[in-house]
Amino acid sequence: MLKAYKHDENHILCEIQPEKAEKGSWINCSNPDMDELLTLNRLTSIPIETLKMALDREERAHVQLEEGYIFVVVNTPVVLEKDAYDALPLGIFITPKFFVTVCLEENGVIERFLNESFLSFYTYKKTRFLFQILLKSASTFLYFLKHIYKQTEEVEDEIKKSLQNKELYRLLEFQKSLTYFNFALHSNQNVMERLMRLRRGHTPSLLKMYEEDEELLEDIIIENKQALEMVSIYTNILISTMESFSSIISNRLSQIMKFLTSVTILLAVPTVIYSLWGVNVPLPLQNSSLGFMVMVVSGIVITGLFALVLWWKDML
Fold it and tell me: What's any one GO cellular component for it (predicted)?
């Protein structure tokens, strides 16, 4: 899908035809086919191979300075399914005329710029727009991290009531998601530090930074570091929680096995007694009318004595 946007004179974001995009426009390309890539190449002069790099799910976050454009790849969080999260690369191109975003699928961070009118951004302020995407990506990571922590607490409550493995599997999914987030945030941190070095050194003409932009970049770095700290804290908490609950489940299983063993012993006592009196030889009380009741009561009493012993030994 290839779409173009531009703020009009009233600062309202309007959708325009990609072929009619003019200087200061934003071209957004998600899950494109080959025809759309060719159209984007014709409009921006960005090589097809470079555009395909932005569509690689395994592409690492980096900043690439080329003659005629700046290529930035950042990681953005995505929800794969329930309890499963990952990071998706988002390619950002800054050219003399356009601000271009390219992604393998529809991106939640980009959708927020399209759907939330309170976001103050302008398509023609390319450097500011780039930094705002970075900031929104970091804040979205933080949002998902808080959501993971909340879900982890819910799983803890469920584990207290259940011996099923599905809760541990959910914790494993959370741990895997945190691992993905940790790698993605570290990669984004490298991008931000590279941009910071560009500010201190020779800033490319396509990446003009004003004082407000520099302050925004510093805020982004702080936000990203906060997300990294949260990932580290939540990962340690999750590992400790999994180890603790694994021990609890093992202890519960041991208690159940101990109880079942005691019950087996108790059932074996009357079984042995009644089996002995069932053999085909002369036995005491075999001619008595009270013999059956005596044997039943004797079995119950002896079993009760064994139960008291097991209870005293903390086996029941």
Answer: membrane
